Amino acid sequence: MEEDSFGSRKGKNMARIGEDASGGGRVRWGILGTGRIATKFAAELKRVERLGGSSVAQAVAARELERSERFAGEHQIPHACGSYTELLERPDIDVVYIGLVNSQHYPVCKEALLAGKAVLCEKPFTMHPSQSDELIGLARQRGLFLMEGLWSRCFPVVRAVRDIIHGKEYGAVTLAEFDFGFIGDLSPQGRLMNPALGGGALNDVGIYPLTLSQFFLGPIVEFQAMATLSPSGVDLRVLVNARHESGALSRLAASIDTITQKEGNLFAERAAIHIPSPLWKPPLAICRIHEGQRGSTPARPPTERRIEGAYGGNGFEFEINHVAECVAAGLTESPLMPLEETLQTALLMEKIRKECGIAAPGL
Ligand SMILES: NC(=O)c1ccc[n+]([C@@H]2O[C@H](COP(=O)([O-])OP(=O)(O)OC[C@H]3O[C@@H](n4cnc5c(N)ncnc54)[C@H](OP(=O)(O)O)[C@@H]3O)[C@@H](O)[C@H]2O)c1
Asked: Which domain, by its residues, includes 210?
């Protein structure tokens, strides 16, 4: 297997793209699931397709044919399948997007890799580190592209902020805070409140502060966590205080029953970097440069530098284009969301669940 300049391994995908004329040389996507996020993904995939991007929506699958047919009609997707297996057996699909409830990520991702498909799987990747490890091993063994769908990392503003931090433009970041709290569907039958479907704040939105903080500040090496649990055993609210390898400390908060600011703040030696809501898909970040003035009431107000990255659709274009580029180039993993980080995040989330007594689906 070859290595590219990112150190990512090149696999089998490259040879298969455009093998027949169905995608016109473009990367052909299959969408698994017809829920809320799959709807947003499909809308943006079609927008990217219309704009002449290198992706095309080829097929959609639901557990029931009627639902996938309706979805295909609404989004002008050529093929509708009545089961996930039916879509995975199609030879005209290069990459599948898994937009299913959390507990279905592992079995369906495994089936997709065994069927020889490249995979973009929604976050959180799986419900247990051993499942993540198995899927990563399978993808590597088969030379297939695999990525956890943490789309925030693909946004230009997020990448620009990371470059500023890694380049130490304003010195080292020593403190940071990120939060993502909203009021979700708290009905007992909904996916958020059901441990068997992988519910809870950490899985649903806590993963954003957790992975964004590490994107900017490097691996978390130590943490303290606490959560408030629902009667069903999922976490309604979770707080994590983390120490990163660099020595930076971060405060991470998430909730499915409380609305928070949904923003990020990173404090460096000579500037504070503010990412306003929506933190997980930001069109803007603001650096407030204080140049290290001392005292609690500085003599001069900070100067501002705006990092702009407005986008036309719902934001999925960046992840769609990134995956299409990786797959077309024959990469087996994303340089923005490396598989080792996916595994380390799964291990960290498992530790947080254990520390807080959060219920998770059985293996
Ligand atoms: N990237 C983001 O910004 C973002 C935002 C929200 C959610 N997500 C992620 O996307 C995934 C889906 O979230 P969602 O909000 O779209 O959920 P949703 O609206 O409830 O849809 C979930 C889908 O899962 C499928 N499913 C398979 N087995 C199921 C079962 N046993 N019970 C219920 N549904 C089942 C259903 O597909 P069928 O169509 O086949 O019935 C359904 O369409 C989650 O992993 C979540 O973390 C990501």
From this structure: 156-310+345-356
